[in-house]
Amino acid sequence: MVTSPQSPKGEAAAAPAPASAPLSAEAQTAAGILPASHWTEQALPEEGPGNDGASTLGSFMSTTASLASSIYQYRTVQGRTYHGELGNAESWEPNDPRHVEALDLLHHALMLQTDGKLYLAPLEKKKVQKVLDIATGSGLWSIDFADEFPNAEVIGTDVTPIQPSWVPPNVQFELEDCNQEWTWAANTFDFINMRFMNGIVTDWYALFRNAYRVCKPGGWVESSGTSGRFYSHDGTVKEGSAIDQWGIVFREGGKKLGRTFTVYEEDVQRKGMEAAGFVDIQFRDIEVPLGVWHPDKKAAERGLWWKMAVEADIEGYINYFWNAALGWTPEEAKVFARYVKKEWNDPNIHGYFILRVAWGRKPE
User: Fold this and answer.
1) Within a 13 Å sphere around the CA of 187, how many CA atoms are in the beta-carbon half?
2) Has keyword Disulfide bond (predicted)?
3) Contact, 202 vs 105, CB < 8 A?
4) Can you list the positions of beta strands (E) in 62-164?
5) Is the CB of residue 235 less than 8 Å from the CB of residue 3?
6) What is the 3-state secondary structure (H, E, C) of 65-114?
7) Which of 58, 124, 222, 257 has the CA that lies 20 to 30 A from 17?
């Protein structure tokens, strides 16, 4: 069984260099990964009315920013499009309209986890003049923050131009790879926001060093990241189950590409902030249920929205790593996704993951 995690204490191991070929069958077995045949040789679970994810929520905006035409030369992996060449960037999430809609849902799901707050750092509204949103995705956080802080300039960055073009006048989007040396001058920003960078960052210590350099004295940085797998307090997330395998594949895939998914388990947010020089570091760990099994109505609503956000494009979330790490075909990955959705919709499986929001201040 997979039980609740303890607070992370050990030092994070250095990530190995990325490899090009999928993990060997022996390596997959050693890591506890079940073969594709384990899922494809079983009868497919039926797609019940509870398994349609966010299909009833309609479509969200999916226009693109006005940037140089060369950046629209996207890569295609297993039938889905991904960002074009930009340094050594290697995002595992697609950038097509279906996934952009899923990212919009994810923004709302995260807002529910933090009681509708865009940030938890103790910002003084009058002092916030310039803000940086790293890995902005579909751009909704930048847009919402700009609406709440109309006198602040907000810059959202990403490796792919999937942000809307109609935005508040105090928002702009730029194409940047956060793993490269940041291009802004020292002491530029009052607040730096970084969300959902699991599987993206090659060096978390370098990331926070960059953030420290461009943050103004007295300014704040905030990072939101998740655990690398699902847990349960009562042992209902079983070893070998689809949602247990979900975490194992992302963990091993992150190791293979040198971009960890175990952000919470390795405690990289706190450690990176401390090493960079930030002070007054605080964090909040939030248990996020998957599905509506939780007896508390508010927690069940939080779980429902997170489930809908992932189910809106579950194939997109697993497409890259199930191919890069395991060598599976899209058809095999889709079969696995059916089993994941079945377990997420089972009220007898009480799975959850940890969302950690951490923030720290640059000394004045």
Assistant:
1) 4
2) no
3) no
4) 75-77, 80-82, 130-134, 153-158
5) yes
6) CCCCHHHHCCEEECCEEECCCCCCCCCCCCCCHHHHHHHHHHHHHHHHHC
7) 222
